[in-house]
Amino acid sequence: MILAAGLGTRLRPLTNDRPKALVEIAGRTLLEITLARLRAFGVREVIVNVHHLADLVIAYLKAHDNFGMRIEVSREDVLLDTGGGLKQAGWFFLEDSASADEPFLLHNVDVISTVDFMKMVQAHKANQALATLAVRRRESSRQLLFDEQGQLCGRRAGHDQKPEIARPSQQTQELAFCGIHIISPRLLPMMKEEGIFSIIDSYLRLAASGEKIAAFRADQYYWRDLGKLADLQQAAQDLEQKVLPHSKRC
């Protein structure tokens, strides 16, 4: 699933007349770049959530014949946040009973990286985790807390805020989330939250009940959040300088 419903307010004025998913880097939209990355790892079925200027995304996908993939759209009349968005689209991952145990990937459209999805899946399966989150050590006002075994135990929102502890641990490390998840479908019926909510809320509640929400260290990979204009410009430079390799066009 590609999370693409956000308003993209930090990318204005680019998002005044287009959704964040259709903002371009070096002539390619963020949506195409993300789809190309997924295709490179063998993904052929995707659901995309949309909200802001949703019809433009739908028309874009139609004009490109869904880039040769099966692409479903989950339209949100109100923004449901990451958890609410996944919950609404959850049917997509439960419709095929033959693959009901196979994990799926959840990816922010405004993240660009060289994170190895196959290694994430392998780590997810080896850990028998409910969800595996790509994380790295970096400056951020929002940090997730993991114990020595790499399992989620809390979060800190704001540098001076007290941490929210879901599962006590003698020693924790703060790591910033990269917007890429590997998730077991059994999470979906466990999401008891309703309406608009962050998936991190579900993760913390389930971690408190003993479920394994695991860290995948992504420090060695290229990664950039494309939430600001300066980040788009830097990513374009990185592509030109081959710091970030081009993925093949869809």
List the helices and strands and how they pair.
Elements: E1 2-3, E2 24-25, E3 28-29, H1 30-40, E4 45-50, H2 54-63, E5 70-75, H3 81-89, H4 91-94, E6 104-108, E7 111-113, H5 117-127, E8 131-136, E9 142-146, E10 152-157, E11 164-165, E12 173-183, H6 199-208, E13 213-217, E14 223-225, H7 229-240
Parallel strand pairs: 1-4, 1-6, 4-5, 8-13
Antiparallel strand pairs: 2-3, 6-12, 7-14, 8-12, 9-10, 9-12, 10-11
Please give a structural write-up.
With 250 residues, this protein is α/β, with parallel strands linked by helices. It has helices spanning 30-40, 54-63, 81-89, 91-94, 117-127, 199-208, 229-240, and strands at residues 2-3, 24-25, 28-29, 45-50, 70-75, 104-108, 111-113, 131-136, 142-146, 152-157, 164-165, 173-183, 213-217, 223-225. A hairpin with a 2-residue loop joins strand 2 (24-25) and strand 3 (28-29). The model has no long low-confidence stretch (mean pLDDT 91).
Low-confidence stretches: none
**Estimated helix fraction:** 25-40%
Order of helices and strands: EEEHEHEHHEEHEEEEEHEEH
Evaluate the radius of gyration.
18 Å
Q: How many strands in all?
A: 14
The structural class is alpha/beta
Biggest sheet statistics? 10 strands, mixed
What is the number of helices? Answer: 7
Outline type: globular
| Span of the ends, CA to CA | 17 Å
Q: How much is the average pLDDT?
A: 91
Strand content: 25-35%
Q: Main traits of this protein?
A:
250 residues; alpha/beta; 10-stranded mixed beta sheet; two-stranded antiparallel ribbon; 14 strands; 26% strand; globular
